[in-house]
Write a sequence for this structure.
């Protein structure tokens, strides 16, 4: 069987939490738009719609129609190795987990690159143009958002369930008041007495 593989990431820019890479593999003749009505770049969808599509994707995966996975790299890994290496680690691990280079063609969003042994194409704004990348973007986003909501219970003062670690005014104010926790990317944050800003 020939497989089409989509890859995208979520959470490159937040001040806290992991970066997430979603990888999806579908048979080349699989009609993604028909299977997932309304599919689009995850950023263009409501949280409810992303969850709806993700749940359907899980059901399809359980039935053996498609394959999917998400690879998350922690804030500590990002601080230690850098965001670029963290994303590449997720891409390479996820692609190699799901896809055989002999039977797969990989489509990636933006500037992402698959391992060199795979036939591949990187597409600018691919998450909006290619349904298989759109589905990967939803997998990446939903998995990360669910984790941030779970972690919010451990760190209620930061409001992670609302902003998911992004640098909103409320999040910056919380950091100014409580300092950084272990979920924060210290290399992304600069603190003074009143504010935190992206370095």
């Amino acid at each position: 069987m020939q497989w089409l593989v989509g890859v995208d990431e979520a959470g490159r820019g937040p001040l806290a939490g992991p970066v997430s890479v979603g990888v999806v593999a579908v048979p080349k003749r699989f009609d993604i738009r028909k299977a997932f009505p309304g599919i689009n770049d995850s950023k263009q969808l409501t949280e409810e719609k992303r969850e709806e599509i993700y749940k359907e994707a899980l059901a399809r995966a359980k039935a053996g129609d498609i394959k999917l996975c998400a690879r998350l790299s922690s804030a500590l890994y990002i601080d230690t190795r850098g965001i670029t290496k963290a994303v590449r680690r997720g891409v390479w691990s996820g692609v190699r987990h799901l896809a055989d280079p002999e039977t797969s063609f990989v489509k990636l969003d933006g500037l992402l690159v698959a391992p060199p042994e795979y036939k591949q194409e990187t597409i600018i704004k691919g998450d909006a143009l290619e349904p298989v990348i759109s589905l990967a973007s939803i997998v990446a986003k939903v998995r990360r958002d669910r984790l941030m909501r779970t972690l919010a219970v451990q760190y209620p003062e930061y409001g992670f369930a609302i902003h998911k670690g992004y640098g909103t005014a409320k999040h910056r104010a919380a950091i100014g008041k409580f300092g950084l926790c272990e979920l924060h990317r210290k290399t992304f944050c600069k603190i003074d007495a009143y504010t935190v800003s992206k370095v």
Residues 131-154 form the longest helix (24 residues). Strands lie at 3-10, 19-27, 67-73, 104-109, 119-123, 189-191, 196-198. The chain is about 45% helix and 20% strand. The mean pLDDT is 94.
